[in-house]
Amino acid sequence: TKVDTVMHEAYRPQLHFSPKEKWMNDPNGMFFLDGEYHLFYQYFPGGTKWGPMHWGHAVSKDLIHWEHLPIALYPDSTGYIFSGSAVVDHHNTSGLAKNGEIPIVAYYTIHDDKKAKAGRVDYQTQAMAYSLDKGRTWTKYDQNPAISNPGIIDFRDPKVSWNSKSKQWVMTLAVKDHISFYGSTNLKQWKKLSDFGLNEGDHGGVWECPDLLTMKDEHGVEKNVLIVSINPGGPNRGSATQYFVGDFDGKTFKNDTPGKNSGWVDYGPDNYAGVTFNNIPKEDGRCIMIGWMSNWFYAELVPTEKWRSAMTIPRVLTLRTIGKNHVVQSLPVVEIEETIESTGKISTREVDTLDITAEAKVDVRLSRIQGRIKKANFVFELSNAKGEKILFGLDDVGGKFFVDRSASGKVNFHPDFKLGIQAPRVRDSEWVEFTAIVDVASIELFFDQGATVMTAIYFPNDGYSKLKLYGKNGKVSTDAIVVDELKTIW
Ligand code: FRU
């Protein structure tokens, strides 16, 4: 097989999706059909900063290896193509198929920049496009906009899914500081159902990219989870994604913890606008999410040359009970194991300092590290020959997980990039289970079965090749630490 040199330049993720060149932000329109996962994304082919938005496109058979496809949707005289979703209309409820095809129906926001510049407030509307060839080519609906603007500046990011309880398509839409739900039986005409959120959850920024999920907890209790991205106002500054657990009765969403959100999908600074795949087969049943692995604070400033941004590793969301509350946990999809090149094991013991790379004898630049550590003040240090490093671990006294990228390499492109990152310990127990995915310029940390997740990007001047673990206040006990060196997908 031939090596794609473009996909091996400095800071280029080797396990994560990134565009071959130019600017990318949010994942859009994700669905599964006939053995293929489709990923669309906010894309500007004209530069490495945000610009007139298109929908880029890629497909994968396993959520790990991606094939870049031609741009799916181009902006036109009505405006840019902002974020949205796509559903598989198996029963042709839309009537768009004339010859027995299965329509894929995409909803996105048209952003009319000319109207915005003219000082009007109604420049974002919801529009539809469809594909009759399994997502390869798209036709814009001739009666767009399907939902016109009620006079609100931020009116966007339609996420459509089938609601089996109320037997209708439900569109979840971000409207500045709240969510509006719309219902439809034919994917063409939409009726407003309700609003949610004015006095709920965090409001440090604008609400964007929502998603309404139906999930069962470990006791089989069915709940609805409402995902809402917010920018700025995240727990570690800038962009982040909060969620609410409650019940959607086909009309309104009722929050189980009125006034509060139930937590953050990811407490780190670099996971934004994440939404889930539509049409995952029942036999699979997973709720699979991908997020944009950056932050609006500095996304346009990060020191990559030819392209900007990558997606997170696809993650499986599960609903679990902790005490009286429901929490959403997430872990990387198991498909990642197809990329394991070699495995190093660390003997279980009590240590002051553990040189993980020396003992495991695998390359950690592209790796998965898993295991358990007894609750203590512990620090992992991932570093390079230049002495640049990123630290992460548990501050047991403060009961918080942390990531410290202040000396991680290039950090001065934005004043906030080097600031400390913290997250609560959501699921407390004697042992801290962890999974870390390291990929050239990013780390994704899943603590306590994914109850606390932190994602952070970094830009060292030389690849990180050393990993060690030490206790801050004495020894640390480790158990079953396994380091998997992973293979590049490009
Ligand atoms: C979120 C977002 C969306 C919008 C898109 C534009 O990152 O601001 O609300 O649709 O990006 O690219």
Key features of this structure:
Tachylectin-2, Chain A, 490 residues, single chain, 2 helices, 2 domains, 6-stranded antiparallel beta sheet, Jelly Rolls, globular, binds beta-D-fructofuranose, mainly beta
Radius of gyration over C-alpha positions, nearest whole angstrom: 22 Å
Q: Name the CATH superfamily classification of the largest domain.
A: Glycosyl hydrolase domain, family 43
Q: What percentage of amino acids are in beta strands?
A: over 45%
**Helical content band:** under 10%
- Uncertain segments of ≥5 residues (pLDDT<50)? none
Shape: globular
| CATH domain class name of the largest domain | Mainly Beta
How far apart, in Å, are the first and last alpha carbons? 10 Å
- CATH topology of the largest domain, what is it called? Tachylectin-2, Chain A
Instruction: Count helical runs.
Output: 2
The major pleated sheet works out as:
7 strands, antiparallel
Mean pLDDT: 97
- Count of separate structural domains: 2
The CATH level-2 architecture of the largest domain is identified as 5 Propeller
Q: Structural class of the secondary structure composition?
A: mainly beta
